[in-house]
Amino acid sequence: MPSQGNHEITERIRELEERLAESEQTLHALRSGEIDAIVASGPEGDRIYTLKGADEAYRQIVEEMTEGALTLAPDGLILFSNERFAVLVGLPLERVIGSHFHDFIAREHADVLTALRSRVLRSGKAEVRLQSEERAPVPVYLSWKRVKQEEIECVSVIVTDLSEQKRNEEIMPPRSWRARSWSRLRKPWS
Amino acid sequence: MGRNNNNDVTKAFEQALRQPSAGHYLLRLFVTGSTPRSARAIQNIRAICEAKLHGRYELEVIDIYQNPELAKPEHIIAVPTLVKKLPLPVRRIIGDLSSTERVLVGLDIVPNQT
């Protein structure tokens, strides 16, 4: 190979090494948390994405609440689940998100799933049994509402475990049980 | 006889290694809660998997807010990121996976034409 060719190759490698070093430095800064925001170019100009938002407090409430919390796509695909719901169906969280909500609802509650998908009904509530291969069915109370997150239409669902109340129902007269359980079940959307 | 059996097992094992998953896909999608692009990525990858990999894929969706320790070994920089763990080689696709073509090329389902 002529020496001129070698020189060109060496020059090209040096140039590529410089570009690689710059890219690696950028990635390192991103990964080690040295930045506050990312600027993304779009058709309407640049948009700034801050990495820590004011929504953090709300996110923590949802993640750590004692009820199951879900966000579903209109077809029932689970877009978000908190850890509590994953515990109720006895699966790791990463197997719950991305699966279908109807897989966890006992077959006899098909009418509830239809109501959940309905565009006419904006909200609803129902008592159902959660089923999963991993554990025995769990009686739960569902409360849902249709919401729009940015441009995506979805359904927010709160899932309350009724196991304890069902056990109480067996040992206490239904009258006194009902008075107690409804006061407990009062949800923000009901 | 025991020796022959061992040889057979070794051969079968070696063959299995050469075709590690026989077309079985293990995919991990990293998301941040129910943010819009994460939501879209979940919907897009499920639709693509159902259309192209029906019955031969496993999809795990990891919310890095709730499971940050699962993101660490994968060196996730941006979210959403899809990681194809199997079949090898490991590949990553960053973004909301709205370009089906780019996802199919990235997953080696269709060859890269460029």
Break the fold down into its secondary structure elements and pairings.
The complex is a heterodimer of chains A (190) and B (114).
Chain A: H1 3-31, E1 37-42, E2 45-50, H2 56-64, E3 68-72, E4 78-81, H3 83-89, H4 93-96, H5 110-117, E5 123-132, E6 135-149, E7 152-161, H6 163-171, H7 174-184
Antiparallel strand pairs in A: 1-2, 3-4, 3-7, 5-6, 6-7
Chain B: H1 2-18, E1 25-31, H2 36-52, E2 57-63, H3 68-71, E3 81-86, E4 91-94, H4 100-106
Parallel strand pairs in B: 1-2
Antiparallel strand pairs in B: 1-3, 3-4
Description:
The complex is a heterodimer of chains A (190) and B (114). Chain A has 190 residues and is of the alpha+beta class. Chain A has helices at 3-31, 56-64, 83-89, 93-96, 110-117, 163-171, 174-184, and strands at residues 37-42, 45-50, 68-72, 78-81, 123-132, 135-149, 152-161. Chain A has a five-stranded antiparallel beta sheet with strand order 4-3-7-6-5. In chain A, helix 6 (163-171) runs antiparallel to helix 7. Chain A is elongated, with a radius of gyration of 26 Å. Chain B is α+β, with helices and mostly antiparallel strands and 114 residues long. Chain B has one domain (21-106): Glutaredoxin (3-Layer(aba) Sandwich), CATH 3.40.30. Chain B contains four helices and four strands; from the N terminus they run H-E-H-E-H-E-E-H. Chain B has helices at residues 2-18, 36-52, 68-71, 100-106; strands at 25-31, 57-63, 81-86, 91-94. Chain B has a four-stranded mixed beta sheet. The longest helix of chain B is centred in the first third of the chain and has 17 residues, at 2-18. The A-B interface holds A 27, 30-31, 59, 63, 71, 73, 77, 79-80, 82-83, 93-95, 97-98, 149-152, 154 and B 28-29, 31, 33-34, 36, 38-40, 42-43, 45-46, 59-63, 65-67, 70, 75, 77-78.
